[in-house]
Amino acid sequence: MTRPARRASTPPNPEALQRMRTRTGLEKAPRVDPVLAASAAQAAPAAEEVPPSGVTPPMPPIEAAGQETPAPAQPPRPPKHKVALYMHEEDAARARAAFTWTRAHEGVLSWSDFINDAVMRRVAELEEQYNNGEQWTPVPTGALPRGRPPAL
């Protein structure tokens, strides 16, 4: 059995990857080779590296004047609650495609995060439009009417 050919894709968005790392709190552990670390500690300080002719060494990033430091991470939220919904298959397939093709670029970790972000964006729009941007009083689980909706 042969594998299908991989599609060429664009490289992931660095800002989206940083958001993913920030959201999960996961960072790659630094690699430390004990042999190299010991020999580097014993070696004399090396002279500053001279780049090959015609090559300019990279400059360190310059911070903009008055740039604020990022706000501290928000406290952890309570565990997520399962919410079921029905969608037309064409809409669901379209949503799955959007998730699949943009998750690395947008920093979305899971299908649940994708759906949650989309719903909460719409909730914020409705709160802005109908409730002066204020959050509505939460409605408890089981309080929504069940069955076929009445005609409007």
Helical content stands at 25-40%
| Count of helical stretches | 4
| Low-confidence sequence ranges | none
| SSE pattern | HHHH
Largest sheet properties: none
Shape: extended
- Class by helix and strand content? mainly alpha
Number of strands: 0
Task: Write structural notes for this entry.
By secondary structure, the chain is mainly alpha-helical. Helices cover 38% and strands 0% of the residues.
What attributes does this structure have?
about 150 residues; about 40% helix; 4 helices; mainly alpha; about 0% strand
Provide a brief overview of the structure.
The chain has 152 residues and is an all-alpha fold. The chain is built from four helices and no strands.
Outline the fold blueprint.
Elements (H helix, E strand, L loop, with lengths): L13 H11 L9 H9 L46 H18 L4 H20 L22
